[in-house]
């Protein structure tokens, strides 16, 4: 398998880099923040966003899709169970929950803080975004009270995808009162290949 990853730094690119490292999959990295919005990246990702991948000549975008595909290609790494299994359904559940019920709220604040030009920003929803993020994060906090990881009690690609968002919550001051999420992040940070931003 020939893998090229368009990735840079600790943004969502970190998910795909971390997954490739955990899987032992060799890849060519194309980086640099000036990739975002460029024609070169648009040839791979229609919105010219990071991360994106070209795998055996075919473009793939959306960090969770890239991570799950890479994990599927490296069964010996044991990072994801087979499609159709209950554990895979749980993976899909937590990925969808994370991206729609948690990350989307933080992203709305992000888009209106540093992505859109100032004249297009709407800042009225920031407090509500934090509230909605925390409401969903509390669900994960409860689950992780009795589980070290989300799937089958062991580290999987699900934790890479979800952990990135939980870490964004930490960095925006949204994990207060959720000790099990903080402990979860501490566990993820101990992994040698962890690519989460520790600051
Ligand atoms: N849902 C996408 C989000 C991709 C995304 O928004 N990436 C950011 C960097 S983390 C980006 O390229 N932002 C530039 C922009 O939105 O214009 C994914 O998970 O891959």
What is the class of the largest domain in the CATH system?
Answer: Mainly Alpha
Q: Strand content of the residues, in percent? A: 5-15%
Whole-number radius of gyration? 17 Å
Overall SS class: alpha+beta
Order of helices and strands: EHEHEEHHHHH
Give the helix level as a range of percent: 40-55%
Q: What is the strand tally?
A: 4
| Largest sheet, strands/sense/barrel | 4 strands, mixed
Chain-averaged pLDDT:
98
Low-confidence stretches: none
Describe the protein in words.
The chain has helices at residues 13-23, 39-42, 63-73, 86-115, 126-143, 157-171, 179-189, and strands spanning 3-6, 28-30, 52-55, 58-61. By secondary structure, it is α+β, with helices and mostly antiparallel strands. It folds into two domains: 3-77, Glutaredoxin (3-Layer(aba) Sandwich), CATH 3.40.30.10; 86-189, Up-down Bundle (Glutathione S-transferase Yfyf (Class Pi), Chain A, domain 2), CATH 1.20.1050. The protein has a four-stranded mixed sheet with strand order 2-1-3-4, with helices on one face. Helix 1 (13-23) runs parallel beside helix 3 (63-73). The mean pLDDT is 98. Glutathione (GSH) is lined by residues 11-12, 36, 49-51, 62-63, 115.
Secondary structure layout:
Elements (H helix, E strand, L loop, with lengths): L2 E4 L6 H11 L4 E3 L8 H4 L9 E4 L2 E4 L1 H11 L12 H30 L10 H18 L13 H15 L7 H11 L10
Parallel strand pairs: 1-2
Antiparallel strand pairs: 1-3, 3-4
Helix pairs in contact: 1-3, 1-6, 3-6, 4-5, 4-6, 6-7
Bound molecules: glutathione.
The site of glutathione has 9 residues, from loops.
């Amino acid at each position: 398998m020939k893998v090229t990853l368009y990735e840079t730094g600790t943004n969502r690119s970190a998910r795909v880099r971390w997954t490739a490292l955990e899987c032992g999959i060799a890849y060519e990295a194309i980086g640099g923040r000036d990739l975002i919005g460029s024609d070169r990246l648009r040839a791979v990702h229609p919105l010219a966003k990071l991360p994106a991948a070209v795998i055996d000549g075919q473009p793939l975008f959306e960090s969770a899709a890239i991570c799950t595909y890479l994990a599927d290609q490296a069964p010996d790494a044991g990072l994801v169970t087979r499609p159709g299994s209950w554990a895979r359904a749980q993976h899909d559940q937590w990925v969808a929950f994370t991206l729609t019920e948690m990350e989307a709220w933080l992203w709305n604040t992000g888009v209106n803080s540093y992505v859109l030009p100032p004249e297009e920003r709407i800042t009225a929803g920031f407090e509500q975004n934090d509230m909605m993020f925390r409401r969903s994060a509390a669900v994960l906090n409860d689950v992780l009270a009795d589980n070290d990881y989300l799937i089958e009690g062991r580290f999987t690609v699900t934790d890479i995808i979800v952990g990135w968002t939980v870490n964004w919550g930490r960095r925006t001051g949204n994990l207060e009162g959720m000790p099990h999420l903080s402990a979860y992040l501490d566990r993820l940070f101990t992994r040698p290949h962890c690519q989460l931003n520790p600051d």
